[in-house]
Amino acid sequence: MDDFDAVVRRFEIVRNNRGTWDDTFQQIAERVLPSAADFGMTRSDGERRTEKMYDGTAALAAQRAVAAVSSFFWPSNQQYQRLSTSNEALNKVHRVKVYMDELTERLFKARYSPRAAFEAQMGEAALQWFVFGTGLMFIEDDLKRQSLSYRSMHLGNSYIMEGAGGKVDTVFRCWKWAIRNVERRWPGKLPSKYAEKLKRNPDEEIEVAHVVMPRDDYSPDRPGYFGWPWASCYFLPGDKTKLEEGGYEAWPFAVLRYMTSPGEVYGRSPAWLALSNIRVLNTMKRSVLGAAQKVVDPPLLAYEDGVLNAFSQAPGYMNFGGLDSQGNQLVKPLITGAKVELGLDLMDKEREIISGAFMMDVFRALVENPQMTATQALELMQERATIMSPIGGRLESEGLGPMTERELQLLAKANQLPEMPPELIEAQGEYRIEYTSPMRKAMRASDAIAITRTLEAAIPLAQIDPSALDAFDIPKTMRELAEINGYPAEAMRSLEDVAAKQEERANQQQVQSLVEAAPQVSAAAANLARMQAAGGVAPGV
């Protein structure tokens, strides 16, 4: 990183250019995710942040949507990714397939290690993804504990930039850190002006920034981190002081963007789409609460004659002077004519719009129809998968894909990967990521439906004419079904084993045929022998 001053200027530019974004982010956060409502402002720890949140519809919808999306795209109870080689010929080699399955197994074991905290951090990043449109997670190695480590980053302190290909290739992140922590992490790097503060007030906080960006002078032949494609730099932006320079062999971030508009870097979320409805709903909720309070506890009208001293509405209280000489009440409630029911109806309509923006109808479809047959459920999943595919495609290409590459690089560095088979070493084949999430399986379900329906139609015909099944390669068909359903390769026989099994079965059938024919052959031979002994000629000779 030869031009450090240019990096600092770039940071200031990217931070200043997000002013309009931060305004909207703050509005969304105050009404949907108050815990993150600190865009463009500084909040004290424990400070109340729910002043503008009167209705929790959007907040609950976001939480439920994230839970549903996680079960569709990265469920914790199954492997939603599978590794294979880019060499199609090698993919047919049983030993290579078993290796790739073992590689996938180790990847998921490391990812879901209790020390890694993947589920918690991914959940936080996904929540910001659904609320703000952009979520970020940093993947690093924990050398002390020999494990992966995941850290969700607050969008308010993170800034992104795109490369020429439209993918995020630069991330700035900043945070406040005590002076003593900076000195402990980077001893002797603090400017001299902090020497006195370090003695008198070591807990005073200063801003620290970190940038990861493409290395312009990258060459794999260069020594150390100069031979890595990603440059890294920690610095003090206020003092323009470099603290540490390094790099990464793989992109260390998972960037989740819900959807982007042309020319924009940050994503837009369901909360963006429904922000006006969310604001209206909160305003209506506040108004309806006020109207309901007036109905339950209305303002009072009283005759001003000086007799109603110390009038109380407390239960059981005796108020003197509240009646005139004819027994008429001198105090009556003020009827405002507020129609709370109308407000409630309008609020329900706004809630429907907000829930629709968060696709709650999509996520509830399967849950609310438990009586569906397996075929109906499969067809419904296909429909939902089509709706979710644009979101899932970006999630996989910008989030899960780079995250997997980073994880494999760290596991290889820690010597935690299985031994590579010689076929793969010789071919120098690269791996590829295949996604096997429930959503992806639903999208491939049409293939499985076509196969099973064809076989179901062929079986009755085979009972009439056995040659009907000659058109099908049953072993290959079963392999295709097994792959669609995510059946593990190690539980499948290799092609060689299948061929040997078929040969063994054919030999057994041949032997069985000979055994069954043995009595007839023996009787014919005995008859022939008797005729030859009598001087006769056997029939057909």
In short:
The protein has about 550 residues and is α+β, with helices and mostly antiparallel strands. About 50% of the residues lie in helices and about 15% in strands.
Q: Could you describe the 3D structure shown?
A:
- 24% of the residues are buried.
- Among the domains are: 374-491, no CATH class; 499-541, no CATH class.
- The strands form four sheets. It has a five-stranded antiparallel sheet.
- Helix content is 49%, strand content 14%.
- A hairpin with a 4-residue loop joins strand 7 and strand 8.
- The protein is an alpha+beta fold.
The largest sheet has its strands arranged as 4-5-6-7-8
Rg calc: 36 Å
* Count of strand segments: 12
- The helix-strand sequence is HHHEHHHEEEEHHEEEEHHEEHHHHEHHH
pLDDT averaged over residues: 81
What's the N-to-C terminus distance? 99 Å
Low-confidence stretches: 537-541
- Given the helix and strand composition, which structural class is it? alpha+beta
Q: What is the overall number of helices?
A: 17
Largest sheet report: 5 strands, antiparallel
Shape label: flat
Percentage of residues in DSSP E strands: 5-15%
Percent helix: 40-55%
